[in-house]
Amino acid sequence: MSSVLDNAKAKAKEVAIEDFNKAKDLAQSAAKSGAYLYPIKGIFYFLSHRTLWKPLLSKLAPTMTLSVGVVSFMFVFAYVPQLAVLVFVNGPLAAFSTALLTLSESSAIITFLSRRFLIQDTLVDTFDGVLLARNQTAVVAEGRQLKAGNFGDPIGKLGKLLKSPFDNFSTKSLVRYVLYLPLNFIPVVGTAMFVLLQGRTRGYSVHNRYFQLKKWPQSEREAWLKENTAPYTAFGTVATFLELVPVASIFFSFTNTVGAALWAADIEANNTSMTEMTTQKSRGGGKKTE
């Protein structure tokens, strides 16, 4: 009996060490890649390039109305019932964790509705506009017509789409969100796990438009994302944190799109410190566009 217990303990220790080492490697890979900085870079780049404001400004009124309406509805009808449950689980932290949970729920609803009905095309314009601003004209030309002139205005240079935009915020993403939602009932740690898991899903979608412009088949996209799980999870986690602010979540959706486009431009120009990205050259994506 004791030998069985000893073997079980040894096996558990082995698995724990293995998982810890994997997590450590992923964390080191994410830190080395610098991918987590791109959502922040996106904010500063967006604010410093007024020509990129056009898509957001064109949708500002309806998205702000949607955000305020959803947040108000959720705090009126969902906050108190959830607080009544979480107070037994989280104790004195219940008010904070319930507010975070309600904000997260509001953010998911706002993002789902806005991306499906309001801002999908404008996010595509923003992504393509940043690529143009970063001299990746040939890449963008694979997916849309480009107007002559307007060299100081990348958004004004965008013409008709030749390829359908990347997928809307999918129903599958919403299902994953609902499945992970119970993690928020675990104080602090559960919420952090929830954001991390959401971040991975979010990160995997940030370059859908880039992959489309590069004409990568699904198998190549999946292999690329698997190879670079840590950087994309790091990007997605930071982006998710930013988009947890519901009234500002639409603004951060645009700045995160800018950050993703800056990242794509750096991949194209081989101007990234991500060691995971070195295989990009062999895939034909490392050639810098003039």
UniProtKB/TrEMBL annotation:
It comes from the Eukaryota. GO terms for cellular component: ascospore wall; lipid droplet; prospore membrane. Its main location: membrane. InterPro entries: CysZ/EI24, Spore_wall_assembly. Keywords: Membrane, Transmembrane, Transmembrane helix. It is a multi-pass membrane protein. The chain crosses the membrane at residues 60-81, 93-113, 177-197. Pfam families: EI24. It is found in: Membrane. This is Outer spore wall protein RRT8. It comes from Amorphotheca resinae ATCC 22711. The lineage of its organism: Eukaryota, Fungi, Dikarya, Ascomycota, Pezizomycotina.
